[in-house]
Design goal:
Helices cover 55% and strands 14% of the residues. The chain has 185 residues and is an alpha/beta fold.
Length: 185
């Protein structure tokens, strides 16, 4: 049985995806309309994977993904977005997503990616250099350093020590980066 916590601020997408996924044998879906409701739902649902619709509301789906990856017991996360947008690919990578599901793909693809995200290692490919360069454009020096270290999955506490920046400031800057990338995606 695969337990999916689906997070989408858009009622039609939330209900449609929940319907499609729950019809598949071996899947159980719980849906949340916001990032905060999803975080609270973790303790009740105990999902195998969290499926996040990227445009989530005040907090982007990428920011929620990052929050879930910073927990003591990180969640497996698949982000539902358009990977054709470079910003979505870079944001998903920076946030630590395990998979990026292309919204334009068929239902079978969605279900296959969810199954894969539950089973194994991160399937999300590193974004191409041009996408990374485009996303880094216009960043100030501390943001550029944080951005680069996040690209190589350096833990936030290590970024804080290396750059001698307060851990809360590092976290705030990462969320700001993800928010900007999410808005552009």
């Amino acid at each position: 049985m695969i337990r999916v916590l689906l997070v989408s601020g858009h009622p039609a997408i939330r209900h449609g995806l929940a319907h499609v996924i729950s019809r598949e044998p071996g899947f159980v879906v719980e849906a949340s309309a916001s990032a905060d409701a999803a975080v609270e739902g973790l303790w009740h649902v105990e999902p195998d994977v969290v499926l996040i619709d990227a445009p989530l509301g005040p907090e982007s789906g990428f920011e929620l993904c990052h929050r879930l990856k910073q927990l003591a017991h990180p969640q497996r996360v698949a982000v539902y977005a358009s990977p054709a947008r470079d910003e979505a690919r870079v944001a998903a990578w920076l946030a630590g997503a395990d998979a990026l599901i292309d919204k334009s793909q068929a239902t079978d693809h969605l279900l296959d990616v969810i199954r894969t995200a539950v089973r194994g290692p991160r399937t999300l490919a590193r974004p191409p250099r041009t996408a990374i360069q485009g996303a880094a454009g216009g960043l100030d020096p501390p943001e550029t350093s944080i951005f680069g270290m996040c690209l190589y999955n350096v833990p936030l506490d290590e970024i804080s020590r290396t750059l001698r920046i307060d851990p809360l400031d590092v976290e705030a800057r990462v969320h700001a980066l993800l928010g900007r990338l999410g808005a552009a995606a």
